[in-house]
Amino acid sequence: xxxxSERLLAVAxxxxxxxxxxxxxxxxxxxxxxxxxxGIIQKxxxxxxxxxxxxxxxxxxxxxxxxxxxxxxxxDGLFAIEDHDGIDTVTIAGMGGSLIAKILEQGKDRxxxxxxxxxxxxxxxxxxxxxxxxNGWKLVDEQILKEDGKIYEVLxxxxxxxxxxxxELLVGPxxxxxMNNIFIEKWEAEISxxxxxxxxxxxxxxxxxxxxxxxxxxxxxxxxxxxxxK
Length: 230
Ligand code: SAM
Fold this sequence. Notes:
Layout (H helix, E strand, L loop, with lengths): L5 H7 L6 E6 L5 H8 L3 E8 L2 H13 L6 E5 L14 E7 L1 H10 L9 E6 L4 H9 L2 E11 L2 E10 L6 H6 L1 H6 L2 H20 L7 H22 L1
Parallel strand pairs: 1-2, 1-4, 2-3, 4-5
Antiparallel strand pairs: 5-7, 6-7
Helix pairs in contact: 4-5, 8-9
The protein binds S-adenosylmethionine (SAM).
S-adenosylmethionine binds next to strand 2 and strand 4.
């Protein structure tokens, strides 16, 4: 049996029973293998763009005896999904938010029959929330967790139109409503970093770009500071 990290277990917990999953960037295919072993999903595609991890995923799927249920494909992003796969759920985990947003944007034509996206950005989740709003997807759940000293967010998206303000785009509407200890720890650390950046810019030559950057940082520090004070 595959033993998943807490991070990937969090992703797995949002997959519906009977789903047909494409796991994009699936270097060991651990997530789809776990989902098959647990009887949660029917079948899956594991997509990998790099040959080494692709071979690793293929070997792992074979070793775990799930080759008949998991197809491993060498492909860039969502181009691993083919019409006949019947994929209804896509997972993308363990990458930066900007890369995940780029993968979603470049392959969005492949999402026609997909009704749930579960993404786990290592940082910059905002890029995914912005992509979602611009492309007819809305958040239905979010999770924040800490494992081995690192904080991760999991975003669950379904089709739908929605508006989020700047703060919600930055920190996540569900995470903001919940405001648990990990959320507070994450954003207190971010605020400290922004304050350091602001200090480091104090003696820099003031260009219009620099002034704008300082204003943006100050605004984020004040807005988020007020939220965390509550
Ligand atoms: N998803 C696994 C996890 O969360 O543990 C693996 C994460 S690993 C850090 C990221 C993987 O995504 C790498 O194997 C990388 O080759 C793959 N990757 C990066 N860009 C990709 C793309 N455009 N299409 C498919 N795979 C990609």
